[in-house]
Design brief:
157 residues; mainly alpha; 4 helices; 50% helix
């Protein structure tokens, strides 16, 4: 999702000779409760407003965008572990985390594209996965203590 070209914002001058316009106060990205769905709804509406494809093509392309984002996770992991001897270490684990977030956001927008009830669909599916995963005498998942960032050791280079 970071492939878009940067353009000067109204608060930035387009060239050194132009004075900067005052920036308007930005709305918070999320409500205080941390619910991501209002942002997903805005992103979905923004994408729909800028869509130039037929509806079926737009739907398929939005689903394919998810594969692109997963590929960026793979690229970041390879870069963070230095697995390409020609390139060496090109990414950090923060890059991997950011790419994983892009996957999550893209999947949420894709789900919203398929249904206006995306939040309920995800919540119901997550409940079923939890029940299925912890059934048959399995222990409920314990939330790791605050500050614990990964379930496996990850070290930045």
């Amino acid at each position: 999702m970071d492939d878009e070209q940067q353009t000067p914002s109204p608060a930035q001058p387009a060239s050194p000779a132009e004075p900067a316009e005052p920036a308007e106060p930005a709305e918070p990205a999320e409500p205080a409760d941390g619910d991501p769905w209002p942002t997903v709804e805005r992103l979905h509406a923004w994408l729909d407003a800028h869509n130039q494809q037929q509806p079926q093509a737009a739907l398929l392309l939005r689903m394919l965008k998810l594969s692109e984002e997963v590929g960026e996770v793979a690229q970041a992991v390879i870069g963070a572990t230095g697995q390409n001897p020609r390139k060496g270490t090109t990414h950090s684990w923060d890059d991997v985390r950011a790419e994983l977030c892009d996957v999550i956001v893209t999947a949420m927008v894709a789900l919203r594209t398929l249904t206006p009830d995306a939040a309920a669909v995800l919540a119901d599916h997550l409940r079923r996965v939890d029940e299925r995963s912890t059934a048959h005498g399995g222990a409920k998942t314990v939330v790791p203590p605050a500050g614990r960032r990964a379930s496996v050791p990850v070290h930045d280079h």
